[in-house]
Amino acid sequence: MKHLSANYRDSSKTEHVYFLGENQWVYASAAGKKPAFNCGDIVEVPFPFTDLSGFKTRPALVMAISKMDITVVYISSHSSWAAYEDFLLQPTAENGLSVLSLVRIGKIFSISPSLVIRKTGEISELDLQVAKWCLNCYFGMKPELIEQSQSSDEMT
Hints:
It is built from three helices and eight strands. It has 156 residues and is α+β, with helices and mostly antiparallel strands. It has a single domain (35-149), classed as SH3 type barrels. The strands form two sheets. Strands 6-7-5-4-3-8 form a six-stranded antiparallel β-sheet. Strands 1-2 form a two-stranded antiparallel ribbon. The relative contact order is 0.17.
């Protein structure tokens, strides 16, 4: 806390100060309107390392929006890191990705919208449904798509 008060300047343009690791500060400005986001948007954010020793600017998929935060999952170009809950996204003009990318559902966190660097695109409605299905599987919930599939199988 000593470092926080020593490094924080009282300014009408600064709303929050975030500490993301040893000697790494991110200042979020409240100047102007905060950007609006939707589920399925791809944004660039300072994604924290799992040990909180630092962060790296990475693309992320917006999965949920609350009054104060957005919840995002990590997007990587390293498809060899795939886990059972992850899925691949093809690059398109709409999503703004330049290479085949892996959406890492298990790498999830919430962040203030003021820390979003920029919106790069959005995924299709079908890809958003896949993302939600994968998220449900990750948390052990019975996804709606599985229920629909099973009920149609029973009818045949």
